[in-house]
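W.,

You were right to be curious about this one. When I first looked at the sequence I had no strong expectations either way, so I just let the prediction run and decided to look at it fresh. Below is the sequence, 305 residues in total, followed by the output.
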Amino acid sequence: MSLPAFRCGFRFLGVVAIVSSFATARAATPGKPAKAVRPLGTSSRMAREDAVRAIPYAQLDRAARSKISAVLASPTIFRCLPAQTIECDPNLYLFLVEHPDLVVNLWEVMGISEVALSRVAESTFDANDKAGTRGRLEYVYRGPQLHLVFAEGNYTGSLLPRPVRGQCVLLLRTSYLRSSDGRDFVRCKLDAFVRLDNVGVSVLAKTFQPLVLHAADHNFRETMAFLGSVHRAAEFNHGGVQRLAERLANVEAGEREKFADLTTRVALRAALTRSGAPTHTGQGTGAAQAEARTATRTGKQGSQR
């Protein structure tokens, strides 16, 4: 089995529905790959114990505690993915993390991916990669510094002799930094616990575990890079982002409007910074507002040509 086929067949391992096929986001990430040595993920016992201690059990309901505990009790694979730091407005970052359906819709509009992700409840989403993998994910805890997701999925296709089902717990921990020049940065750490119900596939997964873990590390790195690219596009191509928001047909109108509003705020703040005006105010004036309006008009004119 080739590496691409293996990664496709086990797409839901460690990243069921949330970061399944997030690697495709690399096509939308501008700039050249960094030359610096990339941090590595780990599956160490110390990292696993640290992740378990961070689970907010006391704030989960009984059903969520039961599902989380079942996976953590006997995971087939554990991975602490390499921490990532991106420049991104905190409010925009949180919105994108908690609205994966909008992120997937962005990919669809941009021609990056054909993965389908639809909201079925306030905190629950169904996913289909259209290649044999289906999954459902539920945000069982959400907070500015911690998100806990329970996901379950299955794969049925020619890559494996029989259907495979698995569950996953994703723990996303976030910290926020602001540089001396006022730039916002987000640092994320993602832990994934995966349990496969099929014993035979469990053995196979452990045999090829280095490949699976490498793919998960890469996917998370590229996903975060994509979120950072949304922030940069809002700063320097506000009109283009607004037009993109108008084309998001697979999310509710309220989500589109919120995304448009958040990216407008990012654009305005960037314009204020470039004009030398204070950035702590909610409204921009003078040169800053003029620059933001000019950027928007330029973007609209470009779309009409």
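Here's what jumped out at me. The longest helix spans residues 209-236. And, maybe more interesting for your project: The CA atoms of residues 268 and 283 lie 8 Å apart.

Coffee later to discuss?

I.
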